[in-house]
Structure formats: C-alpha cells, structure tokens
Amino acid sequence: MQTNAGRDTLSARDTARQPIEAGDPVNDSRLFRRCLGLYGTGIAIITAEMEDQRAAVTVNSFASVSLDPPLVLWSISRASRSHPLFTNGKRFAVNILASTQMNVSRHFSSKVEDKFADTSWSPGEFGSPLLHGCLAHFECETYAQVEGGDHTILIGLVRRASRFDGEPLLFAQGQYSVAYSHPEVSPAPEVGRFTPETATEGTIIPQIFEAHHLLSAVFDEHRHAEGLDISVARVIACVYDMPGLKTDQVARATYLGQRDTEDALATLVERGMLVSSADGQLVLTEAGRHRREAIRTRWQNFQKDQLEGIPEADLRATLRTLSKLIAQNRPAK
Amino acid sequence: MQTNAGRDTLSARDTARQPIEAGDPVNDSRLFRRCLGLYGTGIAIITAEMEDQRAAVTVNSFASVSLDPPLVLWSISRASRSHPLFTNGKRFAVNILASTQMNVSRHFSSKVEDKFADTSWSPGEFGSPLLHGCLAHFECETYAQVEGGDHTILIGLVRRASRFDGEPLLFAQGQYSVAYSHPEVSPAPEVGRFTPETATEGTIIPQIFEAHHLLSAVFDEHRHAEGLDISVARVIACVYDMPGLKTDQVARATYLGQRDTEDALATLVERGMLVSSADGQLVLTEAGRHRREAIRTRWQNFQKDQLEGIPEADLRATLRTLSKLIAQNRPAK
C-alpha cells in the first residue's frame, strides 16, 4: 500500500491508526450515526407558518451554500410530521441557537403539542416565526428542493440575515457543548501565551484556562481507555444513579437526544451491561454496575494522582480562590 | 406586531433583542458571512484522486443527509481550481479533522502547491486519499450534483465509514475551537454538579472546569462592550504587536482564515483604525492604537477586579497548584 506515513513531515505524529470501528453504513446505521456525530455542528431550529399553521424542526444539518446569490440549506426527514408543511411552503426561517438556549432546543425536540405556545417569538418581515434569544436569523424563500434518500434537502434564498450578541450552542460528540478558542491559539487576543516559568499573579486566569483544557483532554483519554464514548458513559451513570427509569426519562436526564440515548442503550444491552424489563424500565446488570464503578474509581484516582504532592495548605488556598471566582461570576438565578 | 415576548414562559429571558446588524445579504455579503459564522461547525478536508491527479479542499459546509441510503453532502466553489476534478470525478472522501490537526487544516488552506507531499496519508479502499490522524473518514461515490448559486453541492453515497479516537476540531465565531460539555450538563458523567458550599479537596478539578467557563463568558461580555468581535480583536492585537505585516502574514499569525482576516481588516479600515500602505503593509492609526490599548487595559482591570480581596498568600498557592497541574499534563514536545 502506498503511504507517506513514515515521512518526517508536519504531520509526522498523524501516523496511520487503527479505527475504533469501520464498515459499510448500509449494514450498520448506528455505526454511521456515531461517525457522523464526530462532525461538530451548531443547532438550528427551522420555522415556517402557512395558513395559521406553524411548524418547527430542530436540525444540525444546516450548511451555507453560496454568497451570490445568498443560499443556505438543511434537510428534513420525509417521515417528519412537518415535512408537508415545509415542502409545500414557499418560505422558512433558520434560527441559530445561542449557548443560553439549551432549554429551547430541548423544548423543540420534545413531544409537546404546540411548541410555540410556551416560547417567546415574533413573526419576521417575511412571515416566518423568529425565536427570541437566538444568535442569528436567516429569513428565506424556498429556492429549490432536492430529494436526498430518506430526507428532502431544502435550499433557501436568504432575504434577510440578522445577528445578535452571544455564543453558539453546539452539538459535538453526542452532547450539548460550548466552544472555546483552540488552546494552540491564545485563549483570547488580550491574553497571549505564557509558560509556567513566566507565571505571575497576572497569569492566574490564563492558567485556569490552560489547566482546564489539559485536564479535560487527559481525562478523556481515561474514558476512552474504559472503552466508552461520552454518551454511553453518561447513560450508564444515569441508570446506575436512578435505576428503573425509562428511555425518554434517561434522554432528558442525560441531556442526550432521544436517538443518541437509544443508540447508547442498545450498545449497553449488546454488551450485556443493561436489561430492559417488560414495561420498559432500565436496570444495569452486574457487569454494568461494575463498569460504572470502575469509571468512578478511575475518576477518583485521576483526581488523587493529579493532586498528589501538592501541600494540603496549597490545596485549601486554591479551593478558596476558585470558590470565590465561581461565586462572583455565577449568573443570578 | 404579534408577540409572545412578555409572557412568563420557559424562555422569558429570551425577550426580543435588537440585532447587532441586519439586512439583505444581496447588498452586504460580509454581513451575510458574519451571520453564517455564528453557526459552529467541524472542519472537513475533502479529497479525491483521478488519473494520478489529487485534489483536496477544506470545507465547513459538510452535512449529513440520509441514513437509508447513507448520504452526506458538501459544497465547492465554482471558482475553485479543484472544481472540475471533483465534479468530473465519481468518488471522494470526507476527512473529519481532530483537535490535534489545526496544522493540517492550515496546511490544506494555504497556497502550497502539492499539499499531499508534506502530509501523512494513504489511499482508501475506494481509491480516494485518506488523511492520517483524522477523527472519521467517509469514503463516498458521487450520488448527485446540484447547482447552488456560486457553488456546486456534491451529494455522496457513503460506501465506508470509519471512526478513530479523539476530539473534534471546530470552527466557531471565526476561529479554531474545541468543544466542552455545556456547563448546564455536568462536565463529565463522572463529575456531577457541585456548589461552592459543597467544595472539598475532591472538587478542585471540577472547580477549575466551572471557573474557566464562567470567567470565559464574563470576559466575552467585556469584549462585546468594546464593540469588537473576536476576529477583529485578534487582528487589531496582531497588527499592534507586529506593525508592517501583510494580509496573509496576519492570517497566519492570528490563525484566522484568509477570508475572515480580510473581512476584519476591511472593518478596521472602514472604522478609521487601520491604513494599508501602497505595498500592502498594515499599520494601525492613532484611533486603532487607542482601541487596542483600551482592550488591554480592560483585560488587566478584569483580572485585577476578579482577584481583588483574595489574600496574597492564597494567590501564590493557587498559582503553584495550577502551574503544577499544567506542567504535569503538557504533552511532551
């Protein structure tokens, strides 16, 4: 096999690795979904109104297409109840969610009958509902529809674009996320890079940023070593702490979507870690409970190892500093 | 205007806000790009090989389409040199970048002639080049092509999907980013939620996570108050520190793409903060230098305010703890 893997290049560390899993997605749609989930995305709620009927769907298939003319696209499942309304309609709005809108995303993904009744919104200039609190709105006319397997791709001509203050809500690795500057870029242009050797009182906050990033990356490796991706780890922790829940309750408690929760539960059943009773109550098997306890022990040992050798007095002082910083920046309820 | 904004709902805080800017994207493509940039995305490099010619383009327009059949899509500019190769070809591969591959993204976005020569890769089972070190690969046959204004949308039938260990590289708010669990979800299933009142030695690491999130959000508000988005703030800091650079040098130094850098520079010129000499050297005006100094002062005051009232001895102990955690988790060079 022709390969450049051995060459001493800018990507020398990117040698060929073994995949965790690989295959034909026709035979394994869960594998395909897990692979797709590795592409992080924002979250958009698409809204439309036609003859006093309103529809909204939550998607992460939004993408930009063209600047001239200004086009964007997204896809809707042909099985969706809202499919006829969007495909017969002549316009829609794309509402890009902000990091403060996790509850809005959850609300619009739920089975509530009239989602607009409990939501703050107003009609846009082109007639589609615009949700308040979003980061951006794209008010569109339907430009083209393209059949795409079990979905229809809707291409919109953007008639009006607007943006607001805030940070984006993201969906990455199967969970709601927020984005921070990549650690190899300075965390903020004001901060600059530093090394522990140059630490002064003026670097406590940048050091908190860097410590967070490094600890987070190192602990992720521990979780991978346990053979669990984050959605499976979250589900196993939830069922351990609250045995007897049903699938939709686990989906809400873990902040995973219904589909990711179902996939994670199926993985756990396949591996003999979970059983589901006749009435749908979920309980871990002994193997499942052991795995959960192994992860918790790993986390406790990780903390102990990390803090080992730091004098007790320093740990207490660090806790006081961090607690004060947290208390004074917590948003008021 | 019909509105539900005043109602006491789950979104009561999402009252209608004034947009920072809004308009018809036909008249202002930079406004349109700034709005599009608020939708966070992963980064994908699309590769293809035809008659010993290889092509690669870096995109953030990747999206999933369908599970049955397994379809994905992305868009390529009709002005791209690689447009003919991708639209005449019968297959391509989607390489989803990992957080460790910022250098790969920069390399493939640069003007280097043969991008594959300095990159570690091998041909996939279906003939398209697969880059090493990625988070996922989708090996595709071209399923359909759709004209989309100044771009062509390519829809791929996925013949093989594979995934690897790692975290995704993201592009959000005009910069390379990494994702962390949303703070309203526990940072990791192992950690759980805590309050300052329950702080113990066992909570130092979760406290670092929470302090980072809160400080980061509060400082973002300061930057917005200065009227600068993050890409403009980064460019102004770069030109201040290194006057006389040219556009492509600023793009590399700031880790912004060429287009975002050009947009940020144009904004600064419009606002009278920057001038460009005949040979393309960039220099801040006095207004530009003042703005840069105002941001730096704001950052210094922010740090001072945050740490005010914490005893000197506690600050030193905190620094020792953080420096140790950073030093022992820094990857070896």
From TrEMBL, chains A, B:
InterPro entries: Flavin_Rdtase-like_dom, NADH-dep_flavin_reductase, Split_barrel_FMN-bd, WH-like_DNA-bd_sf, WH_DNA-bd_sf. Keywords: Oxidoreductase. Residues 36-178 form the Flavin reductase like domain. SUPFAM superfamilies: FMN-binding split barrel, Winged helix' DNA-binding domain. It comes from the Bacteria. Residues 1-23 are annotated as: Disordered. The keyword Oxidoreductase applies. Belongs to the non-flavoprotein flavin reductase family. PANTHER family: FLAVIN REDUCTASE, FLAVIN-DEPENDENT MONOOXYGENASE, REDUCTASE SUBUNIT HSAB. This is Flavin reductase (DIM6/NTAB) family NADH-FMN oxidoreductase RutF/DNA-binding MarR family transcriptional regulator.
